[in-house]
Design brief:
Its EC number is 3.4.16.-. The chain is an alpha/beta fold and 472 residues long. The chain is built from 17 helices and 12 strands. A hairpin with a 5-residue loop joins strand 4 and strand 5.
Amino acid sequence: MKVLSFISLALAALSVHATCMEEHQVTSVPGYNDPDPINFDQYAGRLPLPSNGQNMFYWLVESESDPSTDPLVLWLNGGPGCSSLIGFFTELGPFIVQSDLTVKRNPYAWNRKANIVFLESPAGVGFSQPASNATEYTDVATAARAAEFLAQFLELYPSYKNRDVYITGESYAGMYIPFLVDRLLTTPVTGLNLKGFAIGNPYTDAKIDGGSYIDYYYSHGLSSLKSFLNVQATCKPSELWQCPTHPGNCSPACRNAVYDVFMELDFDNWDAYNIYGDVCLLQPNEAKTLQLDSAMLPRSRSTSSDTPFTPCADTFAAQYLNLPDVQHAIHAIDDDAPSIQWDECSNVVTKRYKRSATSLDKYPIILKAGLKALIYSGDADAVVPFMGTQRWLANDGLNLTVTLPWKSWLGPNKQLAGYGEVYGNITFKTIKGAGHMVPATRPLHALYMFECFVYGDQACQNFAYPTRTSTQ
């Protein structure tokens, strides 16, 4: 009798899961206008957190190859306070929104051989609502809520239990991800088989990252030798890193020297997130929220000629996500509810968020766990320069031992993709010519790098990769 009762309960649970999955299945993509059919299943919606009732919005796109065995990958955009749906539509997701708000396929989507879930985190960002109170916007709280989401996700999608899992993201995810990985290691989620993590252009340590700006500007021809030498002669390292974000914490002489550099930079006419790219001329870009003084904010995100993304891709994506039929299709709102305002970044979250000064203190336990890790930097990013990342890996921060020395790496097209070195389980790579959002500016090399990280260098060399095709 007990056996029958157990079987009945198990079947009932499976029925509930199946019903919830069906309710979250995305059966159509409004405006889809691509000759290639959608060849993967996708699910989207809001998952309530038992701890506080907040509804966390996610969009899962399953693998085009073998969704039943391919790994599960979580993607987090940064900010803090910016939506991962921007990563979905302008970097590594399967769809690209066009200027007329139709949708085409992204030939460089990362779900070719992986199941990718894009999470809007923390609550208050995008469709994840309601916002938290001010005291809950910390990296510790954000990690706890993300871990809680993952536990709920695995209950809704039990086929992903014990599957290989990778945590990935960029920018302020340099804080999000180490805090989350630390949380998952110290308070494991049942059924979550964490294998590794990857972070692009990671904002990791305020002092080390902030201390690299002036060096980057001068070394990339953005400021003069005169102003560079003046900063070198005037500013102490202990104060220089604070000048861009907290000018009141550096001496008047240093502040003036840094100000002279900023005046030379002429931020209004180029994009600090991709120094070699064109800018979107439709409108000023909405809040970019890394810890930079407002004078340093660029006009817009940009891309380069070898990518399917236009400089205004994020603008088109925002317009698309505000369409009522889109919000209903992805279950962001109830069937009978009116549309809501969706923003790329939440000013409320950004203002309330208590940023950590560093995530380096999370790395000792992460390194001991033996997780596979990839840290990568687009070398055309002036917001989180690769120089600072190199320094916290090898010198000023973790002081890791190099196990494979600095060398170049090639993409699948046999062109130079960047450089890198290895420190045990952590691989560091630069991507030549890529900006802050690497998949947007170097999509082929980003895809290749990601698949080599997940499947290994030998395996990815045997994968077929797309050639450049226009989606504009």
